[in-house]
Amino acid sequence: MATMKQWIAWAERHIGQAVVGEGLRVALAGVTQGPLTVTFRLRLLRPNPSELRKLLTLGPSLAQSLHVTGVRISDTAQGVLVEVPSPQPRTPTALDLARSTRGLIVTLGLDQWRKPVAVDLRQNPALLFVGPTRRGKTQAMKATAYALATNNRPPNFGFVVFSQKREDWQAFEPCVHCWGVISDPDEAFDVLSWAAADLLQRRAKEGGNTPAVAFIVDDLINLL
């Protein structure tokens, strides 16, 4: 399709044809282009259990009609959501995530409504980035580090990076928040030993929790 607007109109027609073909009467309540999906929000005009069940089973036939690998249909308080893979993904940038990060409440991404998805590191201090090779795990960690550095003053926040891919993190080394980029496994072990012993024991004794320190481990298996 030439434009995203044209594709959405085309997909809307195909969804309407499939729904009407099943004898269902629905209204389109809204369309939202998220980072990876386009969500069509439907309302049943004659809501009853039978029609709802029928609508919820249309995922495979809609996927065939729209020429995509899969369509997810779910019943929510906002209506019946038809989520279709977007032909033009809009991955949020590091700047997007930094703008909605507040202190240690860091935005990790955007949901299908393009609303921030955040984690409060004071309550959930461990994050695990998991995915196949070359799918953006390092980029996601760099975006998270950037968001935290942008929204926390140097005396209150710092981070250490452990990575054998040192060149991926060279741009962060001059940052005042960065306490070092470490690629040697023995040095990494020494730093983690200091954190687990001296740092935590001193904080437990003094009752303090500043500065906040993030230990970023990029490619844990290779480091081990």
Would you give an account of this structure?
This protein has a four-stranded antiparallel sheet. It is 36% helix and 26% strand. It is elongated, with a radius of gyration of 23 Å. The chain is built from seven helices and nine strands; from the N terminus they run αββααββαββαββαβα. The model has no long low-confidence stretch (mean pLDDT 91). It has 224 residues and is α/β, with parallel strands linked by helices.
Q: What's the arrangement of secondary structure elements?
A:
Blueprint: H1 4-21, E1 26-33, E2 37-44, H2 49-56, H3 59-66, E3 72-76, E4 79-85, H4 94-99, E5 105-110, E6 116-120, H5 137-150, E7 157-163, E8 178-182, H6 185-206, E9 212-218, H7 220-223
Parallel strand pairs: 7-8, 7-9
Antiparallel strand pairs: 1-2, 2-4, 3-4, 5-6
